[in-house]
# Entry
Amino acid sequence: MAIAIALILLVVWSLFFHFASPWYLTPIASNWGMIDTTIDITFVVTGIVFVAVNLFMAYCIIKFRHKKGKQQKAEYEPENTKLEVWLTVITTIGIAAMLAPGLIVWNDFVNPPQDAVEVEVVGQQWHWSFRLPGEDGQLGNVDVRYMSKSNPFGIDSEDPAGLDDILIGDSSTLHLPINQPTKVLLRSKDVLHDFAVPQFRIKMDLVPGMVTYAWFTPTKTGTYDILCEELCGISHHAMRGKVIVDEPSDYQTWLQEQVTFADLQNRPKGDPELGKTNFAICAACHGQNGEGMQVLNAPKLTGQEPLYLKRQLQYWKKGIRGASEGDIYGATMTPLMVTLPDQASIDNVVAYIESLPSEPAEKTISGDISTGRYIYSTCSACHGADGKGIWSMNAPALADMTDWYLARQLKNYKDGIRGKHPGDPYGYQMNMMVDILPDEKAINDVIAYINTL
Amino acid sequence: MNITLLFVALAAAIILWFFVIRRLRAKPWTTEGILERNNITSLPAEKVGLWAFLAVVTSLFSLFFIMYAERSGYPDWRPLPDPSILWVNTFFLIMASICYQLSRNLLNSKNYKYMKISLYLGGIFTIFFILGQISAWQMAYSSGFFFATNPANTFFYLITGLHGLHILGGLFVWIKTALKVWNGLEYNNLNQIAGIRLSIQLCSFYWHYLLLLWLVLFYLLSTT
Amino acid sequence: MAYVSIADKDHEQHMHDPQSFITKYIWSQDHKVIAIQYALVAIFVGLIAMGLSVMMRLQLGFPEWATFITPEEYYQYVTMHGMIMVIYLLTALFLGGFGNYLIPLQLGARDMVFPYMNMLSFWVYLLSVIVLLISFFIPDGPTGAGWTLYPPQAISEGTPGDGGGIVFMLASLSLFIVAFTMGGLNYVTTVLQARTRGMTLMRMPLSIWGIFVATILGLLAFPALLVAAIMMLLDRVIGTSFFMPAMLTLGETSEFSGGSPILFQHLFWFFGHPEVYIVALPAFGMVSDVLATHARKNIFGYRMMVWAIVGIGALSFVVWAHHMYVSGMNPYFGFFFATTTLIIAVPTALKVYNWVLTLWKGDLRLTVPMLFAIGFIFTFTHGGLTGLFLGNVTVDLPLSDTYFVVGHFHMVMGVSPVLVLFAAIYHWYPKITGRMFNNTLGTIHFWFTLLGTYAIYLPMHYIGFLGVPRRYYANGTMDIVDESVQLQNAGMSVAAIIVALTQLIFLFNMIWSLKYGKKAPGNPWGGTTLEWQTPQTPAAHGNWGENLPEVHRWAYDFSVPGAEKDFTPQNEPASDGVPVGRDHGVNH
# Structure
């Protein structure tokens, strides 16, 4: 008897949960309202069956359960063809009612409209970048062969169509104009990924070696998370991007700020000679050879990945770093950024730092190396087993750098002082990854291990 | 999609077969008493077991063939020239198959002497086949078609190797049977003769199957 | 008289009862002992996998606290939990365990037709489990590529266990397939050739139908996994490019070029979807027998049930790509696979109707196995209906790869078959051990398991509607997620821990009852099928004593009008040749 009551309660609870729970489809922000409609149809059909079957079962249990001391005999009924035929017919109708709309909507999904604008989304472990076709409306050829530090998209420089391609490299943020049908071309550099924006209701895998697609029309301005939904390695959960849907005018403003492939290729290399003069002011804290000075809280700069240094300087310029509450040492950098007025000056100073000799920094932190090694196995996925950093992961070098600085930054990540700014997607990844460092001891252990590299 | 259609057809055929023989339409509650247990076949279990096993092997190889066909459509496919020795090997395997069939027929006509010879010959031809395959590998290898240089090479070694393994498995049964025959048969011992007959039947069936498999494989290798 | 000769040939060959402990319990060729060996190993690895799921739930429910779990470990748990549960527990327990136990007993045979191969099957299975478990103890640990082992990630650098874990996994799977094939050939041949006199196909209990068709599926589908495993192993070990495309690894272009990851997915799911039914069909069959026995009523629509099993089995080979709607395969495949997938829902739904209709006008005994069987109908209905969301290509689009999927397949493929396993274990426990289990503990076990699992998985579907992706080590900040989700995650984790602890009650009950349980009668539930009619309980070696049973009727003669008892065993001859209570007339 209890089981019958339990069944009824479970059905009631499920219905209650369905209507009362705070979790359901997010408000839609694309043209795919039809998908929601198919879900609603499916809910109605399956809901009726769920309630009917279980309540009927509960009724049977109450009515036909064996009662002590009462003579009762089951009916002998091997089959009832008529009933079974009816049930088959009704089920088939229910199935068709769900399938038909589904297929119709799918037909829309696989056939993007003619006026859809193409945007390329590139996935890699563990971040997103984007490429727009530029003025000629055509994307240039790409191949894994061409990928390098100076050409992370792997664009074929021989292909004229690629020169005006607009590249959105390390902001992980894509802007789209509202009400513009958009076909995303999906490409992966390494493993499988999946481009999903829950508010748009679409998703599609990125498969290395081929280009897949999906299309949608954003219908609501706002910022939406891009989630990777195909397991792609240990930082799968930290692979995030953003789509910002703009009014057309805002979109144009944003578009103007972006650089093309040709811009990047033609940008003059940094000049160390010119950078030397800029560096004079840096040297006051970071030392003549960029070796860093703990008393002035200035980390070592030499031996660091130039791409990383440039990005961080940009962050200070834009107020992404040094502005958050509690970052007292970072804040001291901010006013000094006036000495680096433009991209060229940043390139120069970084070129100068690159030209300086790099000596391993003094080691000030000790800890349990074996625990540290165990923890570092996670870090090594991006920072490399040798701790030298991996450019394609956008991960800076750790080994031979000033260890007290690493400790402070790890604490900053843990305390949310660094990495919370929306313009710092890699900082956000560190935010998520420092969860494996429960306390100061763990931080010291892992740094102690890095000191042995 | 062709593969899919094939499987749909296969599944439909199986269901149809069941229904055509009306086995699954009986209403079992309407009859009482002992119904003769209409087996699918009156064959010994070993034969049915072999059939089931060959169904598994068929599934395995057809999946490899599908993969082969799929992968050969990619632009980096560089097929290796078919070593002409494969033709010779094919001949050996055909001969082996014929010998087994002969030995089976000769046993039925109680011609024990020739039955033995053809049984031995069947195995010997098979050993020739294996040796031929090995030298085909050596030829391919020595002319620079290494295992991993191209998927076409890998497939060549892999599929022929797998086929060879199945042949070796058959040879194991052949050795057991041949040893029994070698040690002398008592022609009046019906049980023993029945045992040998079953072994030879199983062997010949298995060899015919592997020959067929080889022909399909050979065709596939030489057309892509 | 072919049928007698096969069964009795076995009889003569090894009816010399094995005497020593070693031949009786270790190197045994007796199907019942092998079944128990299979079951014990499967339950053992199942407990490990359950432990892993608790670890996962700790990380998801209490990320701030569970800092001792790193992302690598989390993904290793995910992978091993899935693989062990699907292959090494469910497949092995349903087919190696119950298949072995029930086929000869329910068909009236003395043993499997190839007992030696049957024994080998178990030992190779054990070997595969050992190889799998070794990977926990090698430096890099087991693979963390997800149980689907999708390349390139599964074998590219930086994936947890890329050193040895993946190699051990592929090797273990290959061994398992060999073991399964040896067992499977036995099951199929035994069902076809070793049924006792009078046991026509349509007189077989549905358990046998389920196991039989599932075995055929396994024999045809597992080779796909073998092919995939071999090819991936070659990619990993000697650097071929079957599945590996040109790609960037740790900032360098890899040696690979030209391979296709999608090809692997097709192979994997060509195995993977039938695999679902390899687990589900035996569950369907066994639950039918449990329901009929405890409802004291014949299974409703026996013929429809058999057709449905055969039909589902056949259709299961043409639905595999519904796991791949958003995989990047040719999107036009979506039309075909959505259609086939929804078609398969029709026979499945009919099975559910027939189970419920079996209860209608029955004389229901709400025993522990019956409770589990009813629980199964509930969870399976739930899981089957959510399957209609995911099988329909458009509806799958927002739900794929979210927690909705996790909720769905745990309801339909985790909880449901496991409930059947419990029903079956309780149902056949008296026959297997000769003892009754403790009823109170069984009832407690049922309630916590059913309500607990529903508390885990119902909310999971809704979190999936929200769009929260599966296989995330932690959610972090996400615009679709607020604190309520984390709270619910903690709630699900608590429920999961309770359910896990409840299983210890089950284990205790099984072990305790072995010694202290009441002595069981030979046919405690009043079953009609042959296994309940053995001369000894537990059945002795050779099962049937001197003479094989003869079958006179179908497997579901419960409450036949005019009969004295409410069940008539299959081997009971018709009284005086006058059939009792047949509505449909008789034709001999």
About this structure: Chain C has 15 helices and two strands. Chain C has a mean pLDDT of 90. The longest strand of chain C covers residues 248-249. Strands of chain C lie at 248-249, 252-253.
